[in-house]
Each structure stands twice: as C-alpha cells, then as structure tokens.
Design brief:
Blueprint lengths: L4 E3 L2 E3 L3 E3 L8 H10 L3 E3 L3 E2 H18 L19 H15 L4 E7 L5 H10 L4 E6 L10 H18 L4 E5 L6 H10 L4 E4 L7 E3 L4 E3 L11 H10 L6 E5 L5 H10 L3 E4 L1 H6 L3 H16 L4 H4 L11 H17 L7
Parallel strand pairs: 3-4, 3-13, 4-6, 5-6, 6-7, 7-8, 8-9, 9-12, 12-13
Antiparallel strand pairs: 1-2, 10-11
Length: about 325
C-alpha cells in the first residue's frame, strides 16, 4: 500500500500529521509520535504572549543596565532571571528535528505583528521544515470590520513569508463571511498551505457558582462536517496544500477527509485521548479500507468526493440543504 503524499512541497511517508499539542513538548514526545508512524509533527505552539513577555523583560534588563555602565546596551540579566519560553522552544525544535526522520513543523500562535517574522526565521534556522501560522483571532470588538480582520491575516502572512524560505501554512478559523474568498486571497498572497479549521475556546457558565468556566475540550467526530465541507469545496480551486483538522477520532474520519480532497489530515485530540500509538491504529484502518475498496495509492483516493471544479457550489449546497430538510421533515421520529 502506497501512502506517501506531498504537503507544503514536502514529501511525507503518509498523510497523517500530528497537530500541535502537549504531546510535542519534549523530544521524547516527538519521537513517540514519529515512531507511531505519523508523516510529520507540528510542534506545540509558541505564543505571541511569550514573545512579548521576553521582549519586555529584555527591555527592562537593558534599561536597568544603563544605570550601571555605558556599555550596557548589550546587558542582559542572569539566565535564571528571565523567561526562556521562546529560547526553550527553539532548542526543543532543533533537538526534535535532529532526533526524527519525519519533518518537524514550527507553530506560531498570535494575532498581531509582534515578533512573528523574527521568530519564524529563528524557527527555520533551528531546523523547522515549515512554519504553521495559527492566527487565533476572535474579533469581539463590534467596531472592527470584516475587511480589517482579513487584512490582518494577509499582513501576518506577508511578514513571515518575507522572513523565511521554508513553506508557510496558515491555520484559519471558519468564521469569515466568505471563507472561500479568504482562502483564495491567502493562496494568491503566497500561503503554501491552509489548515482548516482552528477551534475557538467556547466558555461555559456554571449557574451554581455563577462563574464562567474556561476549559479546552478535545474534538469529537461530530465536528468533522464543517471542515469536511470546505475541504471538498476548495479542492482544485486553490494551489495551496489543504490540511484538514478537527474531529479525527478513527480511520473513518481520516478516510473521509482524504476523499474530500485533503492533502494531509491532522489530529491532536485522538492522540491525546488514546496516546501517540493511536496513530498506528488510524493508519492501519486506512490501509484496511483501501484494500477492501481496491485502492493501491493515496492519489487514487484523494478528492474522489470533492465538488468538481466548475460546478455551481452555491446552488449545489442550497440543493443539498433543501433535500436534507425535506428528508428530515418526512422522517418519523416516533412519539414526542
């Protein structure tokens, strides 16, 4: 069975990619993921807030040093006095990239210009095979217009693309007024890949304690349909690689995403829930399905159920919607 595929111009041994998660916070964790069979590993995200904190600490250190001696513009405090989050990250990236044979992709998470470009270049220099820009931005201010949100994504992409030569993917949320146009604009702006989709934190409310409950929940297979739809719609309409993420629990979801047209399928929740070794279970299930259906390569599978280029996507989606509602209305759900 031939599972090799291409993503971001990289050749991967298979289309299953370990998404950014706590599993990749150590070299041993990255090695376990690679040993389990994934085609690539996205390192856990380096957050903009960490970069900002480091910059503020360095600025305070430089200012404090000017009171001591004139040459103190290059002064920094003792290593024990600063947060080494970004430096630890780059060190881990370098060691992880050298420890496994699969590509290791660096991940930057943020919403403002900050030091994205500089740290993206540092990731490249530390051995990252590619950079994933996780633009986690919920425009809660009602004064912010949609075009402004879109331009922010394009600006961040441009800054990073100018700083690195390795491929750059953009991880998007699904909440644009015209997701297809946003994907096309990012594609035209030079995005090497699009990762669909990011999941926003959705707080709950505890009516007994009268508190907001903020927890990160793992995705379930029920969440696959939105990214599945957009993968099928975008296949063949953008030149960027398409990475599917969210809702991968079993080999069934992996297979569905490939049929829709994904170049790779990312998962974090399933690997966190069942352990890194679950990657082998997903891949074995994919191979078994391919054998049963008579497919020998991933290329024979990819995009079989994507919406054909040239089709009227809007009319098709509307038709499917009306038919689905008609069937639901005629279904006997039993006594109410």
């Amino acid at each position: 069975m031939e599972l090799s595929t291409r993503y971001l111009g990289l050749t991967l041994r298979n289309p299953l990619v370990a998404a950014a998660s706590p599993l990749s916070q150590t070299v041993d964790g990255v090695r376990r993921l690679a040993d389990a069979g994934v085609g690539a590993v996205v390192l856990y995200s380096l957050f903009e807030e960490q970069l900002r904190r480091e910059a503020e600490q360095n600025a305070r250190a430089a200012e404090a040093g000017t009171e001591s001696f004139a040459e103190s513009l290059s002064y920094f405090p003792h290593a024990a006095d600063v947060d080494h989050g970004p430096r630890r990250y780059l060190s881990l990236l370098e060691r992880a990239a050298g420890a496994v044979s699969v590509p290791v992709i660096g991940s930057l998470n943020g919403i403002t210009p900050g030091s994205w470009a500089r740290y993206a270049r540092s990731m490249q220099d530390s051995g990252a095979a590619a950079i994933e820009l996780n633009i986690y931005y919920l425009p809660a201010d009602p004064q912010i217009c949609g075009r402004g949100v879109e331009q922010r994504h394009l600006d961040i992409l441009a800054w990073v693309k100018d700083a690195v030569t390795v491929p750059v993917a953009v991880k998007l949320s699904p909440y644009f007024s015209a997701t297809g146009e946003m994907a096309r604009r990012l594609d035209e702006a030079g995005a090497d890949g699009l990762v669909l989709f990011n999941r926003f934190l959705q707080p709950d409310i505890d009516p007994e304690t009268l508190k907001v409950v903020r927890t990160v929940s793992l995705s379930t297979a029920a969440e696959i349909r939105l990214p599945l739809t957009w993968i099928a719609l975008l296949r063949g309409r953008v030149g960027a690689s398409l990475a599917a993420t969210t809702g991968v629990e079993s080999a069934a979801e992996l297979t569905k995403y490939l049929l829709a047209g994904a170049d790779v399928v990312m998962t974090a929740s399933a690997l966190l829930r069942h352990g890194p070794e679950h990657a082998a279970v997903l891949l074995d299930g994919l191979c078994e399905w391919m054998r049963r259906k008579g497919y020998a390569t991933i290329e024979e599978v990819r995009g079989l159920l994507a919406i054909p280029v040239g089709a009227d996507e809007t009319s098709r989606e509307r038709w499917d919607y009306v038919n689905a509602l008609s069937e639901a209305n005629s279904t006997d759900y039993g006594p109410w």
